[in-house]
Each structure stands twice: as C-alpha cells, then as structure tokens.
Amino acid sequence: MTLWTRISDALAALTQGESLTAVFDKLRSPPERSVAFAIAVIALGAKMAKADGQVTRAEVTAFREVFQIAAEDEAGAAKVFNLARQDVAGFEDYATRIQKMFDGQEGTLCDLMEGLFHIAMADGFYHPNENLFLKRVAEIFGLPDASFQALRARFVPDAHPDPYTVLGVSADAPISSVRKVWRELVRSNHPDAMIARGVPPEAVKLAEKRMIDINRAWEAIKEAQG
Fold first, then answer.
1. Is the pTM higher than 0.90?
2. Side-chain-side CA neighbours of residue 106 (13 Å)
3. Where are the beta strands (DSSP E) in 71-183?
4. CA-to-CA distance for 131 and 149, rounded, in angstroms?
5. Cα 114 off chain centre by
6. Cα(148)–Cα(158) distance, rounded to whole angstroms?
7. Which of 84, 85, 96, 223 sits in a 20 to 30 Å window from 169, CA-based?
8. Under a CB-based contact definition with an 8 Å cutoff, are residues 41 and 66 in contact?
9. Among 92, 87, 76, which Cα is nearest to 40's?
C-alpha cells in the first residue's frame, strides 16, 4: 500500500463517523506514524494556506514538494488537500492530537513545522495571519520560542538570518558549544534519523534545505570567530 492509500483509509474512517481521537489512536504505532505525520501536514498545511484568505497554486505545489508526490498519487493527494482546506477552523484540534502523539519528540514536531513554513512561503509572502497560525501551532506543540524563531529566521526573508538564531544558540556561546550543537543538528537531520522518528520517506527531502542552512550558519559563525 502506498502512503496515500494508507492516508485515504485513515481519512475514510473520519468520514464514516469515527472520531479524530480514535483515528489518531490507531496511528500511534511506529509503522503508522508516517501516516499521522502526513495527515498532520495535509490538515494543518491546507488550513494554514487558507489563513491568508486564499489558496494559491504555489501553495498547493509547495505541499506536493514536501512529499515528492508520484504522478499516480497526485489525484488522491489533491483530494485529501482539498478536503482539509475548507476553512481555518479546527486546526487546533489536529495540532493537539499530533502533539500528544509525538509528545517528547521535539525533532518530529520541528520537522512538521518546517513543512508548514515551506508551504507558507510558497507564494513569496509571509502573511501576518500565517505567522499567527504557525506561532499558535508551535505553542500547542510545546516548542520553545527559540525553535520557532530559528525556523522563522531560515524561511522568512524579512531580514538576513542570524546564524546563531538558525542554530538555536546564544551569540555569546563559545565556539566549542556551537560546534557541539551543529554536530548534533547534522546527526539528527540525517535521513535515517528522520525516518526513525516518523517522517515519511516522501518528506525527507525537507532536510536538504535544512542542512544547507545549518552548515551555512556554522560556517558564518566560524568565520566571524576566526
């Protein structure tokens, strides 16, 4: 079964009257967490795309980029996305269920937030309502503000990204501490590590841009500190 077949089966349970809680409870085991992750990006991404008042082709395309959707799965993925994007209402319930499922797994929740930032910036404009939406989701996820600001610094081009913010370290941190954080980020963003924490293989491409940003920040700090 493809990822999209499994997602369709899970969403079919919702349309047949099964509660959201019951559906997510079935997706708690590691093999099915990739389905839960995908549904979270679909639901939250679609609802966020509507948060700025319109859903653009660029945002739908960005969603497809997150998952590297195969041609044979495009119709099913589009149907799922269209169902989820009807309005902004209800996103907090999805965010709460996902937080409970991945409780204590900040890396997975940050992976999900990264997919949402990618969709938010697809049209080249970071709408204030998208910022409010993402900040609220991050709060529900229990992510530290530093993690949210690091993601925002990488994706939103309203200022040159501060390398310390990107790595989530203070500007007065010794180079040895910064190096330790950088190495941990490189290790935790390896594709195998991402898949192990429930990110679908289809979405691992997210790590490519992340690794570029992480390494660029580290190089900038090394150069600045000599």
1. no
2. 10
3. none
4. 11
5. 4
6. 15
7. 96
8. yes
9. 92
pLDDT tens, position by position, 79-113: 666 666 665 557 888 788 788 877 788 888 888 88
In the chain, domain spans: 3-224
CA separation (Å) from 163 to 64, 122, 168, 186, 190? 29, 23, 8, 15, 20
What tokens appear for 169 in the block? 């370290």
Half-sphere exposure of 179 (CA within 13 A, CB side): 6
Tell the residue number behind the tokens 């530093």, with chain if given. 146
Per-residue pLDDT band at 29 (split at 50, 70, 90): low
Take residue 203 and report the two structure tokens written for it: 């979405």
Q: Which token pair is 84?
A: 């989820």
Q: How many CB atoms lie within 10 A of CB 65?
A: 16
User: Which letter does DSSP use for residue 133 in this model?
Assistant: H
**Is 129 exposed, middle or buried, given 0-12, 13-18 or 19+ CB atoms closer than 10 A?**
middle
Virtual torsion, Cα 152, 155, 156, 162, nearest 10 deg: 70
110 CB-near residues (< 8 Å, 6+ apart):
143, 147, 151
Q: Amino acid identity, residue 164? A: Y
pLDDT digits (tens, 9 = 90+) for 175-214: 999 999 999 988 888 878 877 777 766 667 777 778 888 8
State how far the Cα of 84 lies from the Cα of 63, in Å rounded to an integer. 12
Q: How many residues are there in the chain?
A: 226
